[in-house]
Amino acid sequence: MAEQEQRSGHPPEDAAPDVTTENSFMVPKKEISMVPDMDKWKRSQAYADYMSFILTLNEGVKGKKITSEYKVSETVEKLVDLLGTLDRWIDETPPVDQPSRFGNKAYRTWFSKLDQEAEALVSAVLPNDSCAAAPEIAVYLKESVGNSTRIDYGTGHEAAFAAFLCCLCKVGALRVDDQLAIVFKVFNRYLTVMRKLQRTYRMEPAGSQGVWGLDDFQFLPFIWGSSQFVDHPTVEPQHFVDEKVVNEHHQDYMFLDCIKFINEMKTGSFAEHSNQLWNITAVPSWSKVNQGLIRMYKAECLEKFPVIQHFKFGSLLSIQPTKP
Predict the structure, then answer these.
(1) CA–CA separation, 33 vs 306, rounded Å?
(2) pTM for this one?
(3) C-alpha of 237 from chain center
(4) Residue ranges in 126-177 assigned as alpha helix (H)
(5) How far is CA 34 from the centre of its chain?
(6) Of the candidates 262, 220, 218, 219, which has an alpha carbon nearest to the alpha carbon of residue 243?
(7) Vertex 151, ends 114 and 268: CA angle to 5°?
(8) What is the model's pLDDT at position 208?
(9) pLDDT digits 0-9 by tens, 196-208
């Protein structure tokens, strides 16, 4: 099934609508308010475009290291600068003293800065002829860094960042030949900023399933990271719990970088605190791991009402049904 889905993934810009007039953009809004609305989501153009985007990148990074050579466009450089700004704001907004260990309220100060500046930050990334899309695309950037009321972060926020990148492809700011840079340079930088947010402000995992979830915070780097390992000559799924393997290869492989972060944040037996990941060590090949994680991502994230009720739809990621 996953193989068929991967073959059908189109390059991101193939799915781009003809966006020509300013009026065609809109500020995205929530459309999934009840469990029965989930069918509307699964039939939507947004779902088809989002999955196509994820699977196209999954195919693009197959067998490649983070440190491999790839084209870095001006838009990619601007996105890295944008993420650098978010990182700098964390340094400028230290945690405050408070009785509660978790959910430091300084996060809200940091978030309000992004809330005010998001549109300007996105405008700086977009080509001049796409600037009208900034208010629409900026919503996904704001949604991608966690929730300022609950001070939590989870896979729904991660999905908003992937949606943000998908929208940039749809307006032509990112192109097909940016694929490797999107994952290895932009998404990787996003991960470092999110980890810094999680650590600095002791953010809670949003909707965490505890040991029964894959990870407290992320999912996509495990999908793309397992694709990187397909046909690797020496590292097999059973090896990723080996500290020596992690330390040796984490700069080349997203999957191992995620494991390194988990090891830094959690104590005790890996099999106990990260049971679902531990189970992956028994899978015979990385391609099977990759296919299984895609299925799991759909079932545990994209088809779960508590996650998708927060997703927002506009002109670029539309709730309208896919065209036959």
Answers:
(1) 10
(2) 0.90
(3) 22
(4) 134-143, 155-170
(5) 24
(6) 262
(7) 125
(8) 60
(9) 999 999 999 887 6
What's the average model confidence in pLDDT over 189-214? 84
- Token couple for 35: 């469990």
Two structure tokens written together for 288: 């099977």
Return the closest-CA partner of residue 54 out of 192, 170, 163, 194: 163
Looking up tokens 């999957």 gives 255
Instruction: Return the pLDDT at 212.
Output: 53
What is the residue type of 194?
M
- Size (the chain), residues: 324
Q: What is the pLDDT of residues 61-114, one digit of tens each?
A: 999 999 999 999 999 999 999 999 999 999 999 999 999 889 999 999 999 999
The answer to whether 183 and 132 have CB atoms below 8 angstroms apart is: no
CA 280 to CA 238: how far, in whole Å? 8
In 3D space, the residue among 5, 1, 113 whose CA is nearest the CA of residue 51 turns out to be 5
DSSP-assigned letter for residue 101: S
